Amino acid sequence: MAHHFRERLRSGELLVGPMVTLGSPEVAEILSGVGYDWLFVDAEHGPFEALQIQRVLQGAGTAMPCLVRLPASSEVPIKKALDVGAAGIIAPMVNSAEQAGRVVRLSKYAPLGTRGVGLGRAHGYGLTFQEYVDRANDELAVVVQAEHIQAVENIEAIVCVPGVDAVLVGPYDLSASLGRPGQVGHPEVTAAIARVTGACKEAGVPLGVFGVSAEAVRPYIEDGYTLIVAGVDTLMLGHAAQEMLAAVRR
To answer: What is the CATH T-level fold of the domain 5-248, as seen in this structure?
Structure first.
């Protein structure tokens, strides 16, 4: 894959991308043209079916790596996201090493895993099947989310699972699991995030995080996080519209 995303991720390069929640190939095409390193396609909370994911990836173009956050960390969503051409997956609510290992196995072809074999967009609709299969295990990224207190309690084991390429912290869901929904600055939440940060650094596993603004993600970048989800397409559109309207009415 020409973008070498997994290699760049594992090397510690700073990779910045927005969250895409609109099922619009035009939105993906626009965002792909402004200099981002990758796109986070949110099929967990966004209204995406497999065909919509494919259309968004087609809009982004083959040179733009798109990672799909799955609706669930299970076999069919993993298979479909990869078959339509995702550069990797982001598995939500991975709370144990066993769950992380299963996600990795479902993402890899034999002999490393149990991923099913199809003839989708990723395989050139069958025309480049063998070329894709030969490279997929080495080039597709597997990112797991630490977004629950159970994940925090098991993080030292999770980061030791072979094939886990990065851990993406979910501060908001994590805060909810601690009984502090939305209070991402609460000491219990920051302590949990610090434990995840320390475990990943100790194991040499790249860290990622989501924030709605540059200000939200900057402290994490300064702390060594490199997989950065900065901004959401809907908020970007809404804020730009508000600013335009306010400027016109001045």
So the answer is: TIM Barrel (3.20.20)
Does the predicted model carry a pTM greater than 0.90?
yes
Taking only the tens of pLDDT, the chain with its 250 residues reads 678 999 999 999 999 999 999 999 999 999 999 999 999 999 999 999 999 999 999 999 999 999 999 999 999 999 999 999 999 999 999 999 999 999 999 999 999 999 999 999 999 999 999 999 999 999 999 999 999 999 999 999 999 999 999 999 999 999 999 999 999 999 999 999 999 999 999 999 999 999 999 999 999 999 999 999 999 999 999 999 999 999 999 9
CB 19 within 8 A of CB 229: yes
Contact 184, 172 (CB under 8 A): yes
Instruction: Give percent helix, percent strand, percent coil of the chain, each to the nearest 5.
Output: 50, 15, 35
Interatomic CA distance for residues 232 and 210, integer angstroms: 10
Locate 170 and state its tokens.
């979910």
Q: How far apart are CA 199 and CA 17, in angstroms?
A: 24
- Which are the contacts of 103, defined by CB distance < 8 A and separation ≥ 6? 73, 78, 89, 91, 94, 142, 144
Residues taking part in catalysis: 45
How big is the CA angle at 155 (ends 38 and 74), to the nearest 5 degrees?
Answer: 60
Give which of 170, 220, 237 is closest to 31, Cα–Cα. Answer: 237
In contact, 154 and 96? CB cutoff 8 Å: yes
